[in-house]
Automatic annotation (TrEMBL):
Residues 362-380 have a biased composition (Low complexity). InterPro entries: ARM-like (IPR011989), ARM-type_fold (IPR016024), DUF4042 (IPR025283), HEAT (IPR000357), HEAT6 (IPR052107). It comes from Arabidopsis thaliana (Mouse-ear cress). Residues 392-576 form the DUF4042 domain. It holds the Pfam family DUF4042. It comes from the Eukaryota. This is DUF4042 domain-containing protein.
Length: 904
């Protein structure tokens, strides 16, 4: 029920708008600006009081009518009217939101854009601190605030984005003028309380605009057309260019909100658009780099309230700000509230005013520093608050760098020289900061973690290929021009130096995890053959030292240890193998089991962790490193074979479960989720790798060349047949004695290890075990006694015919394909027949992966059989012709089973 006052205000509102409509419809119509001033704006306060009492549809209709009328403004008389209209709409929406539909929402945006275009195209005042400039920007603020209230009710964000793309470029000259003044030192004669509010309104308006930009893109994701996305990128790039044009960012409290909203908008746009960004990468990076040191190179400027209320204490307040630390801080780095009582601040070292770097003790001894308390405590001093808030801006800029890399990783690779140092990585850079500067020296942990995440993103993907051209040479050897390959070589050296330094000195779990991830990618991407020879050994020894040092926090210990050992695996897997790494391992193994070097060396540490069956993840990771060493440095394996044999036997006995022969046939346990199964699998792979290394396995090179040369189709060329197994690499050393190695180790492995797990209940353990037989060489097999040969052939035939798991049957077919090439197997035609029957059965398997391996084995059987079909061992065997017929029929059937099966 209306009161008398409410009824009166509603009556004035309706009278005003009815009169406005009537007057406009007359011929000729009166001057609209004077009419609006007389009917509406002269009594705007009383009209506003009627808002809450009007029907929503009536209120919306009247305001849209007014806005549409003013959007056709033309001439100087319309300037105050347009400003009053923006204020009236703003005040109305502050009390009650319009009721807009899918057709009225675009109409509102179009009318607002027209009004702002008219106002912003008026001559701009010469000073951004004048009252005239304040009047110019205030309608923009009011319009943006109104739209921010209305936008959540309308999912059609494309209309809002088009509005912003239309309006924001009109503020470009304002940005250039205001930012230029902001970079100048304030005049002592200029009153601060008059200067700052007017200037602040522009940044407030831009912050609102980019906040709406970001929200629109985050909600609509990739629904925007390409042209709208491109226009948005262009708008953002031009704004970022303004920031970069002065070469230095303005650092005061007024800019925090603007920078945060701008960078947040850039993040949302880069994350959600699908259009190319390659044309903008260079400009964005030039601007974003300036934020790496934001808040670290100068003191914050005080706000208006600080100046007005504390003018007489101005000198007192500025002194600690300029020095970088407050008097109450006792020359110590920032500490969150929950840590200040715990730590003895008097034991801390003073911190530089330029780079307030957390010491290693700060970063490591308080693992809880990753909480949000370092960004949000209310009892901190002014400098504490400033540096915490500015760190959020730095994080936002680094995240945008990461977004650019993900949006266009190919174009981003050309910016490596800009974002990474080529020298002196461990020296702070106040100017021309890089990502490594943030990672090494930023005082806030979250900034360093964000830097590490961005660096890991840059190291992943196409960069691993791009970095293969890197080559290291001393920088003194270059003239005025440095090739890109050499620049990348210097960068990789600096990355190694910086990352290894942090891994050694930092103890914070979250950061260390990121550092190990970076190092893993760095090792995988670095062409060590074109880098200094001591680089890879340095990586290995640094990791070894950090592993031995340990990690102080129980919660992170296992994960960090696994990550560190994983980096060792990547280092030992680099190809080609490095001679200095080989010599380093040779020195260790030459000392023997009882030597002090062996007991403290890398291999000894790996064996120590591999023996810890109770810690499955660490054990598995250490086993993988041992396998990588065996495959990449095979000539060293005989020196530590005895320890490998003891280790594998110990692990097999600790984890193996005694199962009956029927269990593995029915394949009860197919899951590899058990930690014991994973350890067994890793241990068997180490055994397999060492056996292949000792016996010199490299593929099916045991096929004699005379076989190939006898064939009329290959008499003019040499065909190389290889199987899909890990090759062996090593270094030729003519001084080492040539020995007939492998037979004794193979016999020991069959007798001591393989028999324990050949019938294991886990399919993955069985398939890994059967795969070992595919690594036997012809010379090793010929040296076996009859019992050992029968054991091997019967095991793989039984697995191929009777195991229910496809992976096991596939592994058995692969072993058959290898062993069938050996001359020794030709002594028994019965073995050939059993091989053929087993392989032929698997060519009918429903899984393509099994049929592919079976067809490959069948091709090897046919190739071997054609040399032995006339041997005396086949004479009198009634089934020989039947087997040959079966082979022919099977081969013809496989030709119709797809290209992959036809190829073998």
């Amino acid at each position: 029920m209306f009161t008398a006052a409410a009824s009166s205000s509603v009556g004035r509102w309706r009278t005003a708008f009815l009169s406005l409509r009537d007057e406009i419809s007359t011929t000729p119509p009166p001057p609209v600006p004077l009419l609006l001033e007389d009917l509406l704006f002269s009594q705007s306060h009383s009209l506003i009081s009627a808002v809450s009492h009007l029907p929503l549809h009536e209120l919306t209709s009247d305001c849209l009518f007014l806005l549409d009328l003013v959007s056709k403004a033309d001439g100087p008389d319309w300037i105050p009217v347009s400003r009053h209209t923006c204020q009236l709409i703003h005040d109305v929406c502050a009390r009650l939101l319009f009721q807009l539909n899918s057709s009225s929402w675009p109409l509102l945006l179009h009318s607002f854009a027209s009004v702002l275009e008219f106002l912003l195209r008026q001559p701009m005042p010469s000073s951004p601190y004048s009252a005239a400039y304040f009047s110019r920007i205030e309608p923009v603020i009011q319009c943006f605030e109104t739209l921010r209230r209305l936008a959540p009710m309308h999912p059609e964000n494309i209309h809002l984005v088009k509005f912003l793309v239309r309006v924001v470029p009109l503020l470009h000259q304002d940005l250039v003028l205001s930012y230029g003044f902001s970079n100048q030192d304030p005049s002592p004669t200029l009153l601060v309380e008059k200067k700052l509010p007017q200037q602040n309104r522009l940044w407030d308006s831009m912050a609102l605009a980019f906040d709406m930009f970001g929200r629109a893109f985050s909600l609509s994701e990739s629904l925007f057309p390409t042209d709208v996305s491109q226009c948005t990128l262009e708008v953002l790039r031009k704004v970022m260019d303004v920031l970069a044009s002065k070469g230095q960012l303005v650092e005061d409290r007024f800019m925090w909100s603007f920078y945060s909203c701008l960078l947040g908008c850039v993040h949302e746009v880069l994350t959600n658009i699908k259009c190319p960004v390659s044309d903008h990468v260079l400009s964005f990076i030039a601007s974003l780099r300036m934020f790496f040191c934001f808040g670290l190179t100068g003191p914050p400027q005080l706000s208006v309230s600080d100046v007005v209320h504390n003018d007489k204490h101005l000198n007192v307040k500025l002194s600690p700000l300029i020095s970088g630390v407050s008097k109450n801080a006792k020359n110590t780095p920032y500490r969150p509230p929950h840590l200040r009582k715990r730590d003895d601040l008097n034991t801390r070292q003073p911190v530089s005013s330029s780079w307030r770097r957390l010491s290693a003790h700060d970063s490591g001894s308080s693992d809880v520093i990753s909480s949000d308390s370092d960004f949000s405590d209310s009892d901190g001093s002014v400098p504490d608050s400033y540096f915490a808030q500015s760190s959020k801006v730095r994080i936002a800029a680094i995240v945008c760098i990461q977004d650019l890399c993900q949006a266009d990783s190919k174009s981003f690779t050309t910016q490596w020289v800009t974002l990474f140092p080529t020298s002196d990585v461990l020296k702070p850079r106040k100017f021309e900061a890089t990502l490594m500067t943030c990672l090494l020296f930023d005082p806030h942990l979250k900034v360093r973690i964000a830097s590490a995440s961005a660096l890991a993103t840059m190291m992943d993907g196409p960069s691993s290929i791009f970095l293969q051209v890197a080559e290291y040479k001393e920088s003194t050897k270059y003239g005025s021009f440095m090739p890109l390959s050499n620049s990348l070589g210097l960068i990789l050296m600096q990355l190694h130096t910086g990352i290894l330094h942090l891994i050694h000195s930092d103890n914070h779990g979250r950061l260390l995890i990121q550092l190990f991830k970076i190092l893993l990618l760095l090792i995988s991407s670095t062409p060590y053959s074109r880098m200094p020879g001591e680089l890879l050994p340095k990586v290995i020894m640094s990791l070894h030292a950090r592993i031995n040092e340990g990690f102080p926090f129980k919660n992170d210990k296992t994960g960090l240890l696994v990550a560190a050992i994983g980096c060792l695996s990547a280092a030992f897997s680099t190809f080609p193998p490095q001679m200095k790494v080989h010599n380093m391992l040779l020195d260790e193994t030459s000392a023997g089991f009882n030597g002090c070097e062996w007991n403290s060396g890398v291999l000894s540490t790996l064996f120590r962790f591999a023996e810890q069956f109770s810690d499955a993840s660490t054990c598995i990771e250490a086993l993988q490193v041992l396998r990588a060493v065996a495959l990449n440095y095979p000539t060293l394996v005989p020196a530590y074979w005895e320890r490998v044999s003891i280790l594998v036997y110990k692990l097999l006995q600790s984890a193996v479960v005694e199962d009956s022969p029927t269990t593995w046939k029915s394949s009860v346990r197919e899951s590899v989720g058990y930690n014991g199964d994973k350890v067994l699998t890793a241990a068997i792979k180490v055994l397999d790798g060492c056996l292949r290394a000792i016996s010199g396995f490299k593929g099916t090179e045991d096929l004699q060349y005379d076989r190939l040369m006898d064939t009329p189709f290959t008499s003019d060329c040499i065909r190389s047949i290889r199987i899909s197994s890990a090759p062996s690499y090593g270094f030729d050393n003519t001084q080492e004695p040539i020995f007939q190695a492998g037979c004794d180790q193979w016999s020991e492995a069959i007798r001591k290890h393989i028999v324990l797990v050949l019938h294991h209940g886990s399919a993955v353990v069985r398939s890994t075990t059967v795969t070992c037989f595919a690594g036997i060489t012809s010379s090793i097999f010929s040296a076996f006694n009859k019992q050992e040969k029968d054991f091997i052939t019967s095991s793989i035939i039984t697995a191929a015919l009777h195991d229910k798991t496809p992976s096991v049957r596939s592994a058995a077919c692969r072993a058959i394909g290898v062993i069938s090439c050996f001359p020794e197997t030709s002594l028994s035609a019965e073995i050939y027949e059993k091989f053929i029957l087993a392989v032929e059965a698997n060519t009918r398997d429903s899984l393509t992966s099994v049929r592919i391996t079976a067809s490959w084995a069948l091709a090897n059987l046919c190739d071997a059989l054609r040399y032995r079909v006339d041997d005396r061992s086949f004479e009198g065997l009634k089934t020989t012709s039947q087997v040959v017929d079966a082979l022919i029929e099977c081969a013809l059937r496989l030709t119709e089973d797809g290209d992959k099966l036809f190829t073998p």
